Amino acid sequence: MLRTARIARPWVLSTRASHSSAASPPPPRPPRRAPPVETDDLCIPLRAPYAIADYLPAPGQSPSLDRATLLKLHRLAALEPPATEDEWAQLADLDELVAIVQAVRDVDTSVLGIAPGEMVDARVRAEPRPVDWSASASAAQQGAATAQDPPEARGQALLKLAKRTEGAYYVAPMPDNVRTRKRSSSSEEAPLSEDEY
Asked: Compositional bias (Low complexity) at which positions (predicted)?
């Protein structure tokens, strides 16, 4: 049984103007519908709704590097250059991937109010919050986070809570099947017996 999935389009805004009772309301518009997408019983599309090839530039328009430049890049990266024509063909296939990356870099962010070169906050949350990306702001946030922690949960005080320590390190219990040389503990407990390793 095939169903058609409804595709949400958040970029389409539907606004309704309020009309006074004296004026006649405008005739209802038919609802806009997305083209139907055939799905199976679990609402999984039977065919991909888009193809990466749609986003690739036409052949001949993608940026390409000549062999001399590629040889120089291989030498600078201390890599072996392609030796056969098949290897050169594989490098030519990378031109399509370079075109995809270039298309992502060329996205017009001015419609979002973001200047070219400005960092985009792509985190997902209910309400957008401004983020100060400067180094001083991150240091202040880090300082605020440590100021909120209780003082006994930091540094040497936390180390003193451990049952077994060795110097400034925690000592984890050893599994039964691992045998090592005996260690002495720097905590107040007696040294570990060989059975405790």
From this structure: 134-148
* 17: nearest Cα among 30, 4, 26: 26
Considering only 73-77, 98-102, 160-164, which range has the smallest mean pLDDT?
98-102
Single out the residue of 88, 42, 41 nearest to residue 65, CA to CA. 88
Return the pLDDT at 63.
65
Question: What's the pTM?
Answer: 0.32
pLDDT of residue 143: 61
